[in-house]
Specification:
The complex is a heterodimer of chains A (about 250) and B (about 550).
Chain A: H1 2-14, E1 25-26, H2 31-37, E2 41-42, E3 46-51, H3 57-71, E4 78-82, H4 84-89, E5 92-93, H5 95-101, E6 108-111, H6 116-127, E7 134-140, H7 148-161, E8 164-170, E9 181-187, E10 202-210, E11 218-224, E12 229-232
Helix pairs in contact in A: 6-7
Chain B: H1 8-12, H2 21-27, H3 38-52, E1 59-62, E2 66-70, E3 85-92, H4 120-133, E4 137-143, H5 146-155, H6 163-168, H7 179-187, H8 193-197, H9 201-208, H10 210-220, E5 236-246, H11 249-269, E6 272-283, E7 288-299, H12 303-315, E8 326-333, E9 336-338, H13 349-367, E10 372-377, E11 387-391, E12 415-428, E13 435-440, E14 443-456, H14 473-476, E15 510-517, E16 522-528, E17 539-545
Antiparallel strand pairs in B: 1-2, 2-3, 3-4, 5-8, 6-7, 6-8, 6-9, 10-11, 12-13, 12-17, 13-14, 14-15, 15-16, 16-17
Helix pairs in contact in B: 5-10, 9-10, 11-12, 12-13
Classes of the chains: A alpha/beta (about 250), B alpha+beta (about 550).
Chain lengths: ~250, ~550
């Protein structure tokens, strides 16, 4: 069904029509989450991801990268826009870290504009370019340039070009915007591996708002790189027995 | 303090360069002296050479005060002389400002056929006219070889019937030899170039050295010699000259578009494309402005440079000032790369690639080429050097990365600090255990779980030993009981640093821990230095943040 829909949208784009309004969804891998979203994360839409606290910035960035990995078909380029200050204050985006999440860094083009105004101008260009698979726009705090008009412009451009836009906001509060979904991301304690080692990246996510569908819902998810999908994370505090077969054997679900 | 250069009036009063300033002041008390500034002179000469670029792309500096132009092919010539050099000698530079009131007569006559000068004399007249208008005093000479032109411009005092005669009359100083060699020639009674040219070269070489004969051969044209131009010659070059200067930047851009179309035709004939396009705008007062663009993939579509030139001009920090107008515009394609004709694919594969390359080009032009990056893997285990972020314009098609090991959680952080940030560890296990509590950015983090240490040693094979005669014992004789990883505790010596007394920074081993605090935030910490072996008080750093 999704493939058919994608094909229709693509033909519409070749013919110069606006693609059909029904978005194409990319399933995230957790049934309840996908059901709440109506099939998964909508492609060719603007999504907002808010870090719950400034210290959750890396978690939100990781979640954005994982969503981009899910949304973008195999080898389409991925653009990441970060402000120069973010690159300095929050640490540079690391290629080996991305590879460890499951994104081939060769696909990524990193843009480091000096200020939010130029970042948003560059973003408008990026989002209008159909070959781009997904664009992550990372903005810290609440820049004046990012208002309802700017976000509306991005959302319209995304619908027309088919680029999925992930607006990553660190140290910022939700404000009115044209986003299709809005999330709040926090890092969560991971499932402990053998010898008390930290496990796979885990997040506590909350769907704050969704256009045209009921809002709300909290999930604890864990990223599985090999399957390239999210899965349910066990509740914190649950004791996970380590399988006797060594590290290869998967730990039992609590 | 000595006098370096004098203006014409001072020369007429009998002063000469080389005189001490006190002597000169004693003779002419009202002498006005200015400090010698070779750097400013050099910059000025460079600017003049830039301006000379309008006559020929082959321009060489002849410091301190000369510029040599190779005008081969720039002059319609029916003689058999294939190469001509013009030398302009700038003896006096009265002011560094270039406010020019230019008389515009006679120039239109010079370019009747768009780029070709009618004759050498007209070219020389144009050069003289423009440079005198810029306030320079000029000595101009025209000869078959660069050396002859330089010598004639510097040393010719009397006019001569033809060029060969003029060269023969030059003093031996025109050879530009060392002081002693010149004196030796003069003592032997050889005063002019003619005296030398008549003699067989072998005995001259035996007595005065090969260098003298070489210089002589180049001067009188027996040996081939060429100038080395300041800029490499572009593969393709197109230019327009205007009788009436263009006063608007938009018009100049339209002309650049036109030239790009010409370039596209030429590139198509050669089955090539360009990755760099340089437009040079020559102002009528001699100032030159260059705007260059580059693309990731070779292109010959004239629309691409046209669009990128506009982006570039919009992004310029200091806008282009047309002043009195541009009277010449040139577009150069420095190198041609092979580019076969492509067929569009129905499903749009190639088109997507090109659209992506165009996006990267546009963003690189607007934001600056270093702000649009791609990652390239490096063969090293030092975390901060594993990936190099290079301008995306240079890497249209990077190679895929190696896959991380399966079944593991991410072992490398998503965000990496370079340099690592120091943290205060309030509790840790001695000597090589993990931190239990640490403070970073004014927040205390309680470590809930950890994995480590993952030991990453410095690259000891890249370390150079500071003093070769006395290497640290660990390099030559690793003492028993130490493993290979400890070999890196010798001193790190900067290769450029030759001072033996400077305390060198030790190359310390790092013990990395993957830790998670009670709130689920994951950090990559390391202890810098092995406890008691490399340092007594190892400090802790946070190097990265996991998702």
């Amino acid at each position: 069904m999704d493939a058919l829909c994608a094909l229709r949208n693509r033909i519409a784009r070749i013919e110069g029509r606006r693609p059909q309004d029904a978005p194409v969804h990319a399933p995230l891998g957790i049934e309840s989450l996908d059901r709440a979203l109506g099939g998964g994360l909508a492609r060719a839409r603007l999504h907002e991801l808010f870090a719950a606290e400034p210290a959750d910035g890396p978690a939100a960035a990781g979640f954005a990268a994982m969503l981009a990995r899910l949304v973008v078909p195999s080898a389409a380029p991925l653009l990441w826009l970060r402000q120069e200050d973010a690159e300095r204050a929050g640490g540079g985006l690391s290629a080996s870290g991305l590879a460890q999440i499951g994104i081939d860094p060769a696909r990524l083009v990193l843009l480091v504009p000096p200020d939010p105004v130029r970042l948003l101008r560059a973003a408008a260009d990026v989002v209008r370019c159909p070959p781009v698979g997904a664009a992550v726009i990372e903005l810290w705090q609440q820049p004046r340039a990012l208002d309802l008009t700017a976000s509306r412009r991005l959302a319209v451009a995304a619908e027309e070009s088919g680029v999925t836009v992930l607006m990553l906001r660190v140290d910022a509060d939700p404000a009115p915007s044209a986003a299709h979904t809005r999330w709040r991301i926090a890092s969560a304690p991971s499932t402990v591996l053998e010898a008390d080692a930290p496990g796979h990246p885990a997040f506590a996510i909350e769907l704050l708002r969704q256009r045209g569908r009921p809002d709300g819902g909290r999930w604890r998810v864990e990223w599985d790189r090999e399957q390239a999908a999210f899965r349910d994370a066990p509740l914190p505090g649950a004791v996970v027995p380590v399988a006797a077969g060594g590290p290869e054997a998967a730990p039992l679900r609590a | 303090m000595r006098v370096v250069a004098l203006d014409a009036r001072a020369l007429r009063l009998g002063l000469a360069p080389g005189l001490t300033l006190a002597d000169a002041r004693a003779r002419i008390p009202e002498l006005a002296a200015v400090d010698h500034d070779p750097h400013a002179d050099r910059l000025w000469l460079e600017r003049i050479a830039d301006g000379c670029d309008r006559w020929t792309p082959m321009v060489a500096l002849d410091p301190p005060d000369g510029v040599t132009l190779d005008i081969t092919g720039c002059v319609e010539s029916f003689t058999l002389r294939t190469r001509k050099s013009v030398r302009t000698e700038l003896v006096e530079v009265p002011s560094f400002s270039s406010t020019v009131q230019e008389e515009r007569q006679g120039f239109d006559r010079l370019s009747p056929n768009g780029g070709m000068f009618g004759s050498e004399a007209l070219l020389a007249a144009d050069i003289e006219h423009r440079l005198t208008a810029a306030g320079l005093t000029l000595r101009l000479a025209l000869a078959d070889t660069p050396e002859a032109a330089q010598a004639l411009a510097r040393f010719q005092s009397l006019p001569a019937a033809d060029e060969a005669q003029a060269i023969r009359r030059l003093p031996v100083a025109a050879l530009r030899l060392e002081e002693e060699a010149e004196t030796a020639l003069r003592r032997a009674g050889l005063k002019t170039i003619g005296d030398l040219a008549d003699r067989p070269p072998a005995p001259l070489a035996a007595r005065f050295g090969e260098a003298m004969v070489d210089a002589l051969n180049r001067l009188i044209g027996r040996a081939d010699s060429r100038i080395s131009p300041r800029r490499a010659l572009p593969a393709l070059m197109f230019e327009r000259r205007f009788a009436e200067p263009l006063a608007r930047t938009d018009d100049a851009l339209a002309v650049l578009d036109d030239l790009a179309r010409e370039a596209a035709v030429a590139l198509e004939e050669r089955h090539g494309g360009g990755r760099r396009f340089a437009g040079r705008l020559y102002r009528s007062d001699g100032a030159v402005r260059e705007i260059a663009i580059e693309t990731g993939l070779p292109t010959r579509d004239p629309a691409v440079p046209a669009r990128l030139f506009r982006e570039r001009i919009d992004a310029l920090a200091d806008p282009i000032d047309p002043g009195f107008g541009f009277d010449m515009i040139r577009l150069a394609v420095p190198a041609i790369e092979p580019l076969a004709a492509t067929q569009l694919r129905l499903e749009g594969g190639r088109v997507a690639e090109e659209a992506m390359a165009a996006l990267v080009d546009r963003l690189s032009i607007r934001l600056g080429r270093n702000r649009v990056r791609r990652f390239v893997a490096q063969g090293t285990h030092i975390p901060e050097q594993q990936a190099l972020a290079l301008p995306a314009v240079d890497l249209p098609d990077p190679a895929p990365w190696p896959q991380p090991p399966a079944g593991e959680p991410p072992l490398r952080p998503l965000h990496l600090f370079d340099p690592p940030q120091r943290i205060a560890v309030t509790m840790s296990e001695v000597p090589d255990g993990p931190p239990l509590r640490f403070r970073w950015r004014r927040t205390v983090h309680e470590v809930a779980r950890f994995e480590g240490p993952e030991r990453i040693a410095g690259e000891w094979w890249r370390v150079r030993v500071a003093r070769l005669p006395d290497p640290p014992p660990s390099v030559l004789r690793p003492s028993p009981g130490r493993d290979a990883m400890d070999c890196d505790d010798e001193e790190l010596a900067d290769p450029t640093d030759t001072a033996p007394n400077r305390p060198a920074e030790p190359l310390l081993t790092r013990d990395y821990f993957r830790v998670e605090d009670v709130r689920g935030r994951r950090f990559w910490l390391f202890r810098h230095g092995l406890y008691e072996r490399e340092t007594d008080a190892p400090d802790w750093n946070v190097h990265g943040l996991f998702a």
